[in-house]
Amino acid sequence: MEEALVIIEENQYWIYLGLGLSGLIYLRIAIKRYQEYRSTFFSLERDRARGKFIQSVFMLVLVAVGLLATFIAATFAAPAVPITARPTVLPTVSLLTTPKITIEGEEVEATVTPMGGATPEGLGCSNPKATITSPQDGDSISGIIDVLGAADIPGFAFYKVEIRSLGSEAIWQAIGAGSGPICESCAIEELLARWDTSLVTAGDYLLRLTVMDSVGNAPLPCELRVRVLPSE
User: Fold this and answer.
1) Which of 211, 198, 115, 201 is nearest to 160 (CA)?
2) Least packed by Cβ within 10 Å: which of 83, 194, 205, 231?
3) pTM surpassing 0.70?
């Protein structure tokens, strides 16, 4: 019932428009039927014309009742629906980009807001709900690497896995992302991303996991330092 009231409130103008057009159509029909009723002479024709006129009037009454019911529902009943019963609109997020905001005409990258209760240590990988379990910090890797871990925070929205070389002008590059939570205890679903290290230059890299919730908050990203060895 509450959902129906919310729908009526959100679409009341379209409902008014539809009922108003229907009312005009049936009003025209009723006038025409009444004129036919007045112009008939034989009793059988008059009875038939009167029946059609009554049907038209009945439809007009239904339209009027619909308009009144819509007005009552949208004006008095719908505003009384508690906010908890109304649908929550979630923001549309990009899985591979960092959110940006504009302040007085200047576009800057938004920073990640740590969630309450999460106080990661070191590089932020101590949170079991947002962590990389393989490779580990300081590992030397080569070839195609499966990045394993967990991404299953409360209110989960998406996660992304990125890499960055240690150069001063290096930028983060996404190598994987997902909109479904990854459970650390689910062996089949531990894969966060697959990294083909042959596509990058050998050297030291940072590997980062960022997990966001539906309102844009996140634990401190999990960052690991790994060394990519030359491809054989």
Assistant:
1) 211
2) 83
3) no
